[in-house]
């Protein structure tokens, strides 16, 4: 990379950081002004929420709750990917299987995460499995559908040509299907992870004795609005960090071949 290109990238990055900083400052200012006109138990100001966040850090359970929620989300998401991706490939490769199972997928998509949470409590009780199941049932159809649509875009002539060269099914999958499906899988996975993170809080509020969702419900029951906001800000920052620090770099690395194609 040339010096001019490096300088341009540095300036673009600096401009992006400045824009984000201005946006955050404007949001904080609007929040502070709104809090001046409302009772603290309705809308606490940024300073009060910051104090509540510091108190949470010193509570002794903050990182434990954060870790257990992250574990449940990741476990449900990984299971959804392991089940949803192969099923999506099967449905995309077999029109007969797609016609047979499409009504079932529509039913699964119709059931809300709150209903899955109720079923999970009945089946698994107050346990990690409750939240993991809800995340799985929310994320799996999203991944399956995106992979299915990606499999439909695979050029069948390329598949037939590969078979004529006596390529094995594994080789066809690796060299033809995966490059086509991977962008669709990644798009569905990002969407599924975001939804899974949110529904995990729903499950934890009604079917857990720890985790962020449980702490949110606990704070809301005690009208500790500053702690509710502190947990909410923590979630937002964590999701933005995962998006900017893990998902986007991974996406750029996986699909850098597109820029050179």
What features would you describe in this structure?
This protein has eleven helices and no strands. With 261 residues, it is mainly alpha-helical. It has helices spanning 3-36, 46-57, 62-93, 95-110, 113-124, 128-152, 156-164, 169-207, 212-221, 225-254, 257-260. It has two domains: 1-37; 44-260, MetI-like (MetI-like fold), CATH 1.10.3720. The model has no long low-confidence stretch (mean pLDDT 83). It is globular and about 70 Å long.
Quick overview:
The chain has 261 residues and is an all-alpha fold. The chain contains eleven helices and no strands. Helix 2 packs across helix 10 and helix 5 crosses helix 8.
List the helices and strands and how they pair.
Blueprint: H1 3-36, H2 46-57, H3 62-93, H4 95-110, H5 113-124, H6 128-152, H7 156-164, H8 169-207, H9 212-221, H10 225-254, H11 257-260
Could you name the key traits of this structure?
261 residues; mainly alpha; MetI-like fold; 2 domains; 11 helices; 0% strand; globular; cell membrane
Overall SS class: mainly alpha
Per DSSP E runs of 2 or more residues, the count of β-strands stands at 0
> How is the biggest beta sheet arranged?
none
CATH topology name of the largest domain: MetI-like fold
Number of domains: 2
The helix content is over 70%
Strand content: under 5%
Write down the overall geometry. globular
CATH homologous superfamily classification of the largest domain: MetI-like
Looking at the chains present, what oligomeric state does this protein adopt?
A: single chain
Mean pLDDT: 83
Distance separating the two termini: 18 Å
Helix count, DSSP H or I runs of 4 or more residues? 11
CATH architecture of the largest domain: Orthogonal Bundle
Helix and strand pattern:
HHHHHHHHHHH
Which runs of at least 5 residues are low in confidence (pLDDT < 50)?
none
CATH class of the largest domain: Mainly Alpha
Radius of gyration: 23 Å
